[in-house]
Design a protein that fits this description.
The protein is of the alpha/beta class and 457 residues long. The chain has three domains: 121 residues, no CATH class; 58 residues; 214 residues, 2-Layer Sandwich (Nucleotidyltransferase, domain 5), CATH 3.30.420. The chain is 38% helix and 6% strand. The protein is built from 17 helices and seven strands. It has a five-stranded mixed beta sheet, sandwiched between helices. The chain is elongated and about 115 Å long. The chain starts with 9 loop residues before the first helix and ends in a 13-residue tail after the last helix.
């Protein structure tokens, strides 16, 4: 006998069906399959199916061979015809010889099915006949196992509390993973469970509340432009660097609002700590990018700047066209080709700095494109954005937030750098990745809500 219990397979169920058709006993079938007798008996009882039949109105057990006629007497609709075939009068109400179908004795004892019965193939109007079919039994078993896994496996009060917590987290823009990590002590469920509950619609949850479930607007494709940077700054040159340098590189890009806005956002994403910096550019030019990078160097210690600017990967935007000035702002020496700090992605290859692009989606959850006027942004608004985006737990950081990892790596120097930028670690109930957080924080500072883009009539 097998030591470990395993579910019956379709092949074993076919053997059970063949054994029942031959008239083998339950013990003989169990011995052939090296299974317990109770396992085979339970399988037959649970997965037997009722055989289809053509039910008659009276459902009399003598209907097949009954030859009576004109039981109704002179009021008979079909004189001379068999009463069992009459569709006008129910035999049960007029025939004194009517006998209700009884359950066959074989169904009350082993093997509980009619597989071996010689009467199985005829008399299709006979009720209460059960057979064991391997394929049908396998489907019934799979459906029963699937049904057992459906629903919420917890008491009603706890389930209602969990669904309310999930709904509240989604309303603040948190992902199922972030909710499962931040509220692990109260929820105690995996992110896949939360996704399943949302898909099933428990607690009035909907896929529309998930950022990534909503369709995105298709982008316009522009003609490719040739790159103008030096060859030693190409992405192929970046790929030749040591793996440790590439894994700790910083990805740089910009975010814009309306075309009419003068201000833009410079984003710096650290691959090692996943920290996302969002800095304000008064205009989208190489000169302004250089100024902001130099200003950032004054806020951090030498160690942090060396790690942050040791290797920077950016795209081919016009704001990064002045590679010499930006390279010097990052710390390059007189001969940058020997030890460049600045590298460029290939044209139209944003996937080469995927971490920055992914984090842009987190920033855009608050600074929605086409919603806010970027010219009305100030540094305090960006401090709010950075605090909320960098306080969320990350799967790649084993559930830690970028702020926690950055402070653990740089200690007091890291804390002072984040404080200089106005970044703080927020509690799990304070994290919001929705646009209204900017208006709420502005109201605390006594400022007007952030200007919105005027919609066309």
């Amino acid at each position: 006998m097998a030591k470990d219990y395993k579910q019956l397979t379709l092949k074993e169920r076919i053997e059970i069906e063949n054994g029942l058709d031959r008239g083998d006993s339950i013990r003989e079938i169990a011995r052939t399959l090296e299974r317990s007798t109770s396992t085979i008996a339970r399988e037959i009882k649970q997965n037997k199916t009722r055989q289809a039949y053509k039910a008659k109105k009276g459902d009399c057990r003598q209907a097949n061979w009954c030859m009576r006629s004109q039981i109704c007497g002179t009021s008979c609709f079909y004189p001379g015809a068999r009463c069992a075939e009459c569709d006008k009068v129910d035999c049960k109400s007029v025939c004194p010889e009517y006998r209700l179908q009884n359950t066959c004795d074989i169904l009350t004892r082993s093997p509980w099915v009619c597989n071996v019965c010689h009467k199985r193939r005829y008399g299709r109007n006979r009720a209460n006949r059960y057979i064991y079919d391997a394929k049908i039994a396998d489907k019934l078993s799979s459906a029963r196992k699937s049904e057992c896994r459906s629903g919420i496996d917890m008491d009603q009060q706890r389930a209602q509390s969990a669904l309310a917590q999930i709904k509240e987290g989604l309303s603040r823009g948190l992902s199922p993973y972030e909710i499962s990590v931040l509220y692990q002590d109260t929820l105690g469920v995996h992110r896949s469970t939360i996704y399943r509950w949302i898909e099933a619609g428990y607690g009035n949850l909907s896929n529309l509340e998930l950022e990534r479930k909503v369709g995105f607007k298709q982008r316009k494709h522009h003609s490719l432009k040739s790159s103008t940077h030096s060859r030693w700054r190409s992405y192929s040159a970046f790929c030749k660097l040591a793996r440790a340098i590439k894994d700790s590189a910083t990805e740089m890009d910009t975010l814009i609002g309306r075309r009419a806005d003068t201000q833009a956002l410079l984003t710096l994403y650290s691959r090692s700590s996943h920290l996302q910096l969002v800095l304000l550019l008064s205009e989208k030019t190489p000169t302004e990018v250089t100024r902001v990078l130099k200003a950032l160097k004054k806020l951090a210690s030498k160690k942090i700047i060396e790690d942050l600017f040791r290797c920077v990967l950016t795209d081919n935007g016009e704001e990064f066209a002045d590679e010499s000035e930006i390279g010097r702002a990052l710390g390059e020496k007189a001969r940058p080709q020997t030890n460049p700090h600045l590298y460029y992605c290939d044209v139209r290859a944003s996937q080469q700095k995927a971490g920055c692009e992914k984090n842009h989606s987190e920033v855009r959850q608050i600074l929605r494109k086409g919603v806010f006027v970027f010219d009305d942004l100030d540094t305090w608004d960006l401090s709010v954005v950075m605090s909320h985006v960098n306080s969320t737990p990350r799967d790649a950081l084993c559930g830690l937030s970028p702020i926690q990892l950055f402070c653990a790596a740089y200690g007091k120097q890291g804390q002072e750098f984040l404080e200089a930028l106005g970044i703080e670690q927020l509690g799990r109930d304070q994290i919001v990745l929705k646009p209204f957080i900017l208006d709420r924080e502005r109201a605390k500072r006594g400022k007007e809500p952030l200007k919105r883009v005027e919609k066309r009539a």
